[in-house]
């Protein structure tokens, strides 16, 4: 629980354990995943007033995928509300993109392509969180993008064809 591993709990793996959380007064009976109930997650649970707590009799801090998604959704809702307050836009104006659903290799390719500086050794959730901040900061000129998209569809071409020197323009 303190970050120090004796190796004993690692040999069993979190798949044989049940979730360490107490949800609305009852211990969760779902299988634990590889996500742990860290101080950061505890802070989110407290801030969002989720009825979750750690069972002190549990010998691990692994949580199930169900509770992991509940906590992630609570984080996302908070972010959306903050951005709504800042920009006076509603949730329907800005579609939420969940980079956590992408594979780690895809996230790494995104990071490399846009040269996003990150700390070494980030896990998938931390990488997705960092890249989401970058993704939201990329400026988009909607009018130009939509105009170019319509032009591309009408001419049956795309940027990749133009880069490779192949012109598929039939006009």
Automatic annotation (TrEMBL):
It comes from the Eukaryota. Residues 15-85 form the Histone deacetylase complex subunit SAP30 zinc-finger domain. Signal peptide: none annotated. InterPro entries: His_deAcase_SAP30/SAP30L, SAP30_C_sf, SAP30_Sin3-bd, SAP30_zn-finger. Keywords: DNA-binding, Metal-binding, Nucleus, Repressor, Transcription, Transcription regulation, Zinc, Zinc-finger. It is found in: Nucleus. Pfam families: SAP30_Sin3_bdg, zf-SAP30. Residues 102-154 form the Histone deacetylase complex subunit SAP30 Sin3 binding domain. Belongs to the SAP30 family. The keyword Repressor applies. Gene3D superfamilies: 3.40.1800.30, 6.10.160.20. This is Histone deacetylase complex subunit SAP30 homolog. PANTHER family: HISTONE DEACETYLASE COMPLEX SUBUNIT SAP30L-RELATED, SAP30. GO terms for cellular component: nucleus. GO terms for molecular function: DNA binding; zinc ion binding. Transmembrane segments: none annotated.
